[in-house]
């Protein structure tokens, strides 16, 4: 049996930091009737990725996710009400450890904060959270202990399509650009999606030098990479990495040793370090032996789906069972996920265990989306009747 660890937090009774000390006024607050033509430019200018949508009573009714809008290529004429996501949020009385867990699970950079009546109070950024928990990181923790490795890189002459494919395939948000052994730039997934969005717009509103998406994807990485790159050594204290990320306003650092790239450290990696001193392992039980090549792929599929699901519901319990059938020729996967309101179960079979897991997780995802949409429609009808 293979055990894949999933981290859940145990409340930290010795750490009394109050959430109210960390929240700030949201730079962008959206009304349901606002159009994307006014929302997207503000979010882009302020580098905001999550904007709360409120009604006339300041109650949170949804969120606008910047990267989600760009990926879906939502028309600029769309109203917020037609493209907003369910209102994932943090309650003002939340325990800091649970807040860390939410940020880690969803990979979000900002979270709306609400009071007991669902009214928007402000927003909490991952940057402020990192600063708050910095002194609670494991003693003597080094960058190299928590950086993502081995690191994927790309060259300046590689095309943009390859960079996008690598990031999507491996579930990463940034790629160091290297010329030989020298770090010369970085490409982020958000920047790529943003540029694709604008080059895909009608010519009269298009921004940039590319005539369309096809030309953009064929362009060399050197034409769109960011040359201002912040790096840090693997032997540096993790607290120093937090200070650098916060002061420079970046979400990750390239880790270099002797001039060569050896890893990438993100804000989520720092949250993982914080959780290490408090973790409870809730295992995903696999009833077959999985080879070392398949295990990271299985973890990636599960974590990518959980990241999306955690934005919609609060995950209370989660388990996966994998069983061999027909002498190992096929695999049966059963996924059980419990949220605050319901237990979701899905099964799938395939010759490839990774494909079977992906199919089962997709079914769970669709079940949750259906429930969330149904609940949203019910609330909408109730408001109309009132």
TrEMBL record:
<dbReference type="InterPro" id="IPR003489">
    <property type="entry name" value="RHF/RaiA"/>
</dbReference>
<dbReference type="Pfam" id="PF00571">
    <property type="entry name" value="CBS"/>
</dbReference>
<protein>
    <submittedName>
        <fullName>CBS domain containing protein</fullName>
    </submittedName>
</protein>
<dbReference type="Pfam" id="PF02482">
    <property type="entry name" value="Ribosomal_S30AE"/>
</dbReference>
<feature type="domain" description="CBS">
    <location>
        <begin position="225"/>
        <end position="280"/>
    </location>
</feature>
<feature type="domain" description="CBS">
    <location>
        <begin position="80"/>
        <end position="139"/>
    </location>
</feature>
<feature type="domain" description="CBS">
    <location>
        <begin position="147"/>
        <end position="205"/>
    </location>
</feature>
<dbReference type="InterPro" id="IPR051257">
    <property type="entry name" value="Diverse_CBS-Domain"/>
</dbReference>
<keyword id="KW-0129">CBS domain</keyword>
<dbReference type="InterPro" id="IPR000644">
    <property type="entry name" value="CBS_dom"/>
</dbReference>
<dbReference type="InterPro" id="IPR046342">
    <property type="entry name" value="CBS_dom_sf"/>
</dbReference>
<dbReference type="InterPro" id="IPR036567">
    <property type="entry name" value="RHF-like"/>
</dbReference>
<feature type="domain" description="CBS">
    <location>
        <begin position="23"/>
        <end position="79"/>
    </location>
</feature>
